[in-house]
Structure formats: C-alpha cells, structure tokens
Specification:
Layout (H helix, E strand, L loop, with lengths): L1 H5 L8 H17 L16 H11 L4 H12 L3 E5 L9 E5 H8 L2 E8 L3 E8 L2 H8 L3 H10 L1 E4 L2 E8 L7 H19 L6 H35 L9
Antiparallel strand pairs: 1-2, 3-4, 3-6, 5-6
Length: about 240
C-alpha cells in the first residue's frame, strides 16, 4: 500500500481509503473462479495491489473520487460492483450495498404497442412467476415466449426481453440529477402562491442540494487533478 503512495497513485491522506479498497479487492480475488456464480469470473491481475493500481490509475468513471466519497460516507455501506464479465478496471465501480444485490438480479421487461401513445413499456418483472400470473401463461407458454422474444396477450403482440443487470449511473449523472432537482426547487420558490411551510421546507432542501452539488463538484475536481498527477503512469506495468 505504501508503494502505491510512493509512486504517486494516491496521497498519504488516502491511506485508510486505500486499505479499505485493498480489502475489497482481496474479496474479489478470493471469490473469482469459485462456485455460486463466480466460476467464469476472472480476477485479471496477479495481486490485489496490481489491481488497486489499475483501478486508481485507469480511473474508470471517477473511480478515485467515488472511492473517497464511499470512504467518507461510510465504507460499510458500499461494495465493489462488477459491471462487466470480469474484475478489471473498466468494470469495477462502487455501489451501495443496499442496492447491489438487486442490480445483479436479472429481470424481464415486457413491451407492447399502443396506437394512442405509441410504443409503451409495461412493468418490469423480477421473476418468471410474476409474468405468468400477470398474463395468464403456463410454464411452457412462458418459456416459448422468452425463447421467441414475444407472445400474444388479448390480441396484442407483446415483446419480452431478458435484462441481465442494471447499470449504476456515473458520478456526472449524480451531479446532473442534483442540478435538475435544484432547478425544480428554485421554481417552487418563485411560485407566488407557495405556503410559508412549503417555502421553509424548500429552502432547507435547497441548502442540502447545494451542499451535495458542491461535494460532487469537489470530488470531480479532485479526480481530475488525480488524473493529471498519474498520467505518466498510464500504460506502465503496475508491477
């Protein structure tokens, strides 16, 4: 871990964050190639420190900044989420533990045409039993529908698509979402008919939103500075 600091991958103040990161990577290394769904998952590095180097230097989707955010917010709330097939720098990102399991769960999305409003989307379904019950399909009919990608319901052809997992939005998306929220909150305040209680609550919410926007902007700036600092390391062997 000290070597990562010495060669400029991270700062000395990050040592506890790096220690927590290395611990999570050890978990990745330990479960890859094992049963319970990890048989075909590869750990793409020779050591956990080589992996930590790659994660921090290649810095996919503000990984360095999100590591700091997760550590400051409480590392026990977060896990390393694998978006791709293997544990590699372009795949791994932090994700809240409370939603991590659901993100990896496959689900089925049923779509169908509507002449009035065009192509619409029905609810997504976490398991086949829900679909069968909703549309009155037998087990055999449902399997055929999934294989064909469509089935008929009340004279309408519906498509059914298997979604392997959902993707955690990027840090920039987080920032964009908060800025949109701030805009809506300011619009609420400009309403001449707003009640006193609503005005007070909205003003408090604006303070919280501004603080979160400032934190995201700070993290992004720190991440950009980090990238500038380690740019000379890119492409070099982490060993």
């Amino acid at each position: 871990m000290i070597k990562l600091i010495e060669i400029g991958v991270c700062k000395f103040k990050d040592r506890f964050m790096i220690e927590a990161l290395v611990s999570r990577i050890e978990g990745q290394k330990g479960r890859s190639g094992k049963k319970r769904g990890y048989e075909n998952v590869q750990f793409c590095y020779d050591s956990v420190f080589e992996a930590a180097f790659a994660y921090l230097v290649e810095n996919h989707d503000f990984f360095y900044a999100r590591s700091i955010y997760a550590f400051n917010d409480g590392m026990e709330k977060y896990e390393l989420h694998r978006r791709g097939a293997n544990y590699e720098a372009s795949s791994v990102i932090y994700l809240l533990s409370s939603v991590h399991r659901d993100v990896h769960k496959p689900y089925y999305r049923v779509n169908g045409p509507n002449e009035a409003i065009g192509y619409i989307v029905w609810d997504s379904y976490r398991n086949k039993q829900e679909i069968a019950k909703e549309y009155g399909l037998s087990k055999e009919q449902l399997e055929i529908a999934i294989a064909n990608g469509e089935f008929e319901y009340e004279g309408i052809i519906l498509s059914i698509k298997y979604i392997s997992s959902s993707i955690e939005p990027s840090l920039l998306k987080w920032l964009e979402k908060e800025r949109e929220l701030l805009k809506r909150q300011k619009n609420q305040l400009s309403n001449p008919n707003i009640s006193i209680d609503k005005k007070i609550n909205t003003e408090r919410s604006i303070i919280d939103t501004l603080a979160l926007i400032e934190e995201y902007e700070r993290l992004i700036l720190e991440d950009e500075k980090h990238n500038d600092r380690v740019v000379a390391l890119k492409g070099k062997c982490p060993i």
